[in-house]
UniProtKB/TrEMBL annotation:
Keywords: Membrane, Repeat, Transmembrane, Transmembrane helix, Transport. It is found in: Membrane. This is Mitochondrial folate transporter/carrier. GO terms for cellular component: membrane. One of its GO terms (molecular function) is nucleotide transmembrane transporter activity. InterPro entries: MCP (IPR002067), MCP_dom_sf (IPR023395), MCP_transmembrane (IPR018108), SLC25A32-like (IPR044712). Its main location: membrane. The keyword Repeat applies. Solcar repeats lie at residues 1-90, 100-187, 200-284. The keyword Cell wall biogenesis/degradation does not apply. Pfam families: Mito_carr. Coiled coil: none annotated. It comes from Cercopithifilaria johnstoni. It is a multi-pass membrane protein.
Amino acid sequence: MEKYEHLIGGFTGGITSTIACHPLDLLRIRYSANDGSCQRPQYRNYWHAAQSIVQSRGYKGLYQGLAPNLIGSAVSWGLYFQFYHVIKSFCCERTISTGAESVDNVLLGMVTGVGILIFTNPIWVAKTRLCLQYENERTKYRGLLNCISTVSRDEGIAALYKGFTPGLIGTLHGAIQFMLYNRFKDNRLKHLGLPADHTLGSVDCLVYSALSKVISTTITFPYQVQRTRLQDHHAKYNGICDLISKTYRMEGLRGFYKGLLMGNLRQLPNVIVTYVTYENVRYFVRHFSQ
């Protein structure tokens, strides 16, 4: 079981953080998708948005799209941690390297992310569309499977891969985050004179996971806006170039950062819960296997 400690830790962390932070993710998606058109609800602020959703659909409305988010996050995090370390071990055994550890970590993270995205992109399309079923319109999708089947039937299989290109750019986000976290972690363990496989304390884990996430989210946030808008069933774009052109023309540079505040507010507790759970579950699995 010990060889699956990264898979089990990542999977458990993904589930825990997604349940805790989904309402924040819902608000981030709605702000990122809002291009100012009259067909969408116009919110004065995040609190007003949350109030409007609760008044219309109750507190369960804040959990629209939870199922695909739960499945996608758990699978992505579980596979990411496991694949990352498998690929890293493979490269180390065969001395495959660029000569720069930071570059190696980024490339490893991107390769891992691309492989996972191929399997999970349809889940993210369903998540986006379920989150963007507004209170003032008829319900189009009844759940994850219904959404995927409806999209593939009405728009074709290719529609399940809308947002794939910015998603590829998004693998850089995960790579930067994971690289920074590992660098912070390694430096901390060296400073304390502890072995590289030692488990970080919860405080260190909180600080380094939060810091790595804020940096990576801020750098790459425009890709999240682009992916959300391409996957949105309310808007039609002729590819990513058309989307970028229209966003800049109608909203300026600010349009590429809509939802950034909520993105960071969401990501912070999300990644903290994920990494703390990941480190502690790994510790439990390792000692349980001995």
